[in-house]
Amino acid sequence: MSDKTEILRLSGITKIFSDTYGIKKKVLEDVSFAIPADSPKIASILASFGSGKSTLFKIISRVEKPTSGEVILGGEKYLQAAGKIVLIPEKSSSLPWLNVRNNIELACRLETCGKNDIGNDINDMIRLTGLSGYENHYPHNLSFGFRFRISIARALLFNPIVLLLDDCFKKMDAAAKEEMYGLIYGISRKVDTHFLLATTNVTEALRLSGSIFLMSKAPAKIYSKFEIPGEFINDYNNEKFIEYRRLIEEAYYKENQQGTMNFSI
Amino acid sequence: MSFMVTRSILVRKPFFYILFVLLVLWIILFEFILPANNFLPRPGIVLLSIPALFDDYHLIANFFETVSAVYLPPLLAFLFLYSIRGSIFNQSAPPKFLTGFLLQIAAFFPAILSGILFAFWFPESFVVTYLFSFIVALSWWMIEMRSAAANPNQTYAAAFKSLGADDLFLNKNILWNEIKPGIFTRLNRFHMQLWTLILFFEFISKRYGLGSLLQQTLNYRDLSALCLSILIITLTISAGFFLLRFIENKFIFWSSE
Fold it and tell me: Alpha-carbon torsion A243, A248, A251, A252, what sign?
């Protein structure tokens, strides 16, 4: 079913939550998709608000267990390989009591980091994420964009196979978003890591991704996939881009009668 | 120049302005208008009784006894909890049971009652005040830490779990720091509560400390020494409060998210 030509495969992921009264809610239902090894470095899961994207990402990164189904990484069942699929959550995950360098260094204390020459690696990550000169800054008063850079640097230190970005740009202003799109796009060209982005923003998904999976509302499942030829990172007003947006919009409204998808730029 | 500075402080800080007015009122009323009374002492007598406070009431020894009993045991209790911070938040560990037990006890058993028992069991002991203070502080830290850690930041936990962090790592490196702002906000109130408890404990045990000094001044009906020691205690508590504020501003510069 799975092979090494695939970076990641999700097979029949279902998640049911039970509240304290025993009432069950199915959030994910048989979510299945695969990211081939030769696919573009950035893929997106596009779904409306509250559809279970964060739950799905927590399951993929082994933070939560699925009710059924399995996550297969590089052709092997993904069990204990922590640090191979790293999650960057929606809210800022940089620690406000540590400066930039210490935020990154803290993760190196984990066995899963497996680094010998930490100092050089940290410097590389700081350079890669554009944090040079800010090593001693504390992130507690700084912008989402700045804090996102720290999370990216910390995650990349692990050389993950897949980096999950859970709607990280949602709270950023337009200028910060532009900067972060450029950052992610630039990093994806320099590292081996594949990026999987969860978003509600069609334009964001189209500009960054090579493939887009459409996910329905809860109980969520993948109902469509779009392969995007070419790159729209800085060229998002041409006919091709507008055509893909229209196609995605059509597919979305065919599946969802009422939606909360963001079609703005 | 200095008059201008003083005036500026008084205008900006109404508290100091009120204090200044009360001081002036006290001097005018009790030095000149009502010199002989049993309500407040004459300012002149208060100044004259300062040497007696040092010689007869052993102010310095009592002062250090109380101050060390108020500040050292909580610090030791904090360091002890710091050393076991990996397991203190563990849901299945003994601290959870112990904290639950302490919370139930605290609901109907005032801490000072245990102080009275301590005073009865160890009437001559020098360390009993420290022991009492340590037990009260340790209980407070544990209850506050566990209640502050009841709703940890799920974002930090998810991000670090995906990197391979276990509960021990999360407790030691993240949760411990995450709860500090909330705890420090409540520490000011505990500071006052602990001062009250220690003074009361020393008052009833009649052996050492500023509480026993107050007890002696009452015994001797020495109004000026009583007022002076109250003033010293108030100033010391204020200094402690400002020290805590300084530590908070210097080291706890972030807020809970």
Answer: negative
In this structure, what token pair is assigned to residue A39? 């696919």
What ipTM was estimated for this complex? 0.90
Buried b (16+ CB within 10 A) or exposed e, B230-253: eebbeebbeebeeeeeeebeeebe
Q: Which residues lie closer than 8 Å to A167 by C-beta, 6 or more apart?
A: A53, A54, A90, A198, A199, A200
Comparing alpha-carbon positions, the chain A residue that sits nearest to B253 is: A97
A172 and A144 in contact (C-beta within 8 Å)?
Answer: yes
CA torsion, ordered A152, A158, A160, A164, to nearest 10 deg: -30
3-state secondary structure of A208: helix
Cβ contact B163–A85 (<8 Å) = no
Residues for chain B: how many in total? Answer: 257
Domains, chain B, in order of start with CATH, read 14-46 (no CATH), 56-255 (1.10.3720.10)
Q: Which of A71, A110, A112 to mutate to test the interface with B (most CBs of B within 10 A)?
A: A110
Within an 8 Å CB–CB cutoff, is residue B164 touching chain A? yes
Q: Distance between CA atoms of B41 and A38, rounded to whole angstroms?
A: 90
Residues A117-132: pLDDT tens digits? 677 788 999 999 999 9
Question: CB–CB of B164 and A83 under 8 A?
Answer: yes
Which residues of A lie closer than 8 Å to B, measured between beta carbons?
A: 58, 61-63, 82-83, 85-93, 95-97, 106-107, 109-113, 138, 140, 151, 154-155, 158, 164
Q: Can you spell out the DSSP letters for B88-108? A: HT-TTSHHHHHHHHHHHHHHH
Nearest CA in chain B to A92: B155
Q: Which residue of B has its CA nearest to A88?
A: B159
pLDDT over threshold 80, residue A265: no
Whole-prediction pTM: 0.83
If one compares B37 and B23, the residue with the highest pLDDT of the two is B23
Q: Do A97 and B165 touch (CB under 8 A)?
A: no
Q: What is the pLDDT of residues B144-172, one digit of tens each?
A: 988 888 888 999 999 999 999 998 999 99
Largest CA distance in chain B: 76
* pLDDT tens by residue, B68-97: 999 999 999 999 999 988 888 877 667 777
Instruction: Tell me the helix, strand and coil percentages in chain B, rounded to 5.
Output: 80, 0, 20
The radius of gyration of chain B's CA atoms, rounded to the nearest angstrom, is 23
